[in-house]
Amino acid sequence: MSRRTFIRGLMLSVDAQVDASIAQVVRHVSRETGVSAADILGPIKTWDIAHPRQEVMRIAHRVLGYSLTQIGTVLGGRDHTTILNGIRSAEKRKASQ
Fold first, then answer.
1. Quick one: CA torsion of 47, 79, 20, 13, rounded to 10 degrees?
2. Do residues 74 and 23 make contact, with C-beta atoms less than 8 angstroms apart?
3. Largest CA distance in the chain
4. The pTM is what?
5. SS3 62
6. 46 to each of 24, 52, 63, how far by Cα in Å?
7. HSE-CB of 35 using CA atoms within 13 angstroms
8. At what angle do helices 47-58 and 80-96 cross, to 10 degrees?
């Protein structure tokens, strides 16, 4: 096995772990909020869907330590600035509760 093949395989393994961990957060938030995982991952922007999605972003970044880009990739290819804005919104809501 060449070095390049090994590194590519390692990166795919890491990416699969990231997907699995964020997917666990999505499932948890889905159960807690009653919003389907498909809606959390989908394009709908209404507040009743966006708020749980933003909570997934916050947990994945602040608790699990994933990068904004990693989270954006798993959550439907969203840009890192969208993820950052979502995290900030979730933190503001959490602070005001």
1. 180
2. yes
3. 54
4. 0.80
5. helix
6. 23, 11, 25
7. 22
8. 100
What is the chain's length? 97
Alpha-helix residue ranges (DSSP H) falling in the chain: 3-33, 37-41, 47-58, 68-74, 80-96
CA gap 34, 43 in Å, rounded: 17
Q: Which structure tokens are listed for 60?
A: 């994945």
Amino acid at 17: Q
31: left (phi over 0), alpha (psi -120 to 50) or beta: alpha
Question: Which amino acid makes up residue 57?
Answer: M
For the record, the structure tokens of 58 come out as: 């916050």
Per-residue pLDDT reduced to its tens digit, 14-66: 455 556 689 999 999 999 999 999 999 999 999 999 999 999 999 999 989 99
